[in-house]
Amino acid sequence: MQCAACAPNAAPAVRLTKPNARGVLIMPSPTSHTYISQRLRLHYFDWGNPGAPPVVLVHGGRDHARSWDWVAERLCDRWHIIAPDLRGHGDSQWSQDGGYAMPGYIYDLAQLIHQRQLAPVTLIGHSLGGNIATRYAGIYPENVRRLVSIEGLGLSPKAMAERLAKPMAERLRAWIEAQRGLAARLPRRYASIEDAVLRMQAANKHLSLVQANHLTRHGVNQNEDGTYSWKFDPYLHVFPPVDLPVQEVEKLWANVACATLLVYGKESWASNPEEDGRARHFKNARVVMVENAGHWVHHDQTEFFIKTVEPFLEGS
User: Fold this and answer.
1) Residue-number span of the structural domain to which 34 is assigned
2) Which regions of the chain does DSSP assign to beta strands (E)?
3) Which end of the chain is more exposed for a tag (fewer CB within 10 A), N or C?
4) Which is more confidently placed, 32 or 12?
5) pLDDT at residue 204 greater than cutoff 60
6) Which residues are registered as beta bridge partners of 48?
7) Position 74 in a domain
8) What backbone torsions phi and psi does residue 51 show, to the nearest 5 degrees?
9) Rg (CA), the chain
10) Alpha-carbon gap, residue 287 to 308, rounded angstroms
């Protein structure tokens, strides 16, 4: 099945994107699918064009797959675009134990690529999704053709050192207390979509009203009482207390065989990997700093991001 924008002689997909009277984007619609990973039913969107080279778009923490719509509609005429909802996010099931450790996320991506026979695949990930994609590329370097990671290397070396300086008992104790707090707290409810949109805009000052509307409407469920709550599992507010040792993560980065693009926003809180030394662990990585962009570069500077990524995906 092909999306409406992906017919061989179709006009550029960007012309198909326009807001209606309520500020909701009218886009070519992807199809909805599920797959099973560790007994969880996980969801993904497929933008069609199955004969084209596959590109998997992996969203960040407390986000959802439709966050990629602006990117997907611009690429789906030349690539087979698949955008999964991570476990605990979007329309994927929540983890039954409330735990969201990195190995589970990596396994989910590995299962999607394996079950749908996507390798060799291009991976584009943002934040948590970039971290997942980058580690997968280090585990299965033969399966990844190109890698784009938008602020997806995790904490800066300085922030990581500060975290690891705390004794393990202290970190685990803080995690337990945080988990208990979340267990006792009901998910936040918004009286209207408009109230949730305001919260979305507060989280990213670069978002237009149209963008915030689109992200919110795909990111909430309506409760029985008519209010709205975010789709993601509230337990995602707490980071896992334990991860792979830094040295092992760096070895995974060094094992990535494909060309890699590390994208960062100049107005983001994230550390520049070229300046802090993390980029040197990759065999073939280029760092791109984007002006007038924060953590969500693909939202804040979509046109620049597309113009940067397109030739990279094509191998130039």
Assistant:
1) 19-178+240-313
2) 18-19, 25-26, 31-37, 40-46, 54-58, 80-84, 121-126, 144-150, 220-222, 228-230, 259-265, 285-290
3) C
4) 32
5) yes
6) 2
7) yes
8) -80, -10
9) 19
10) 11
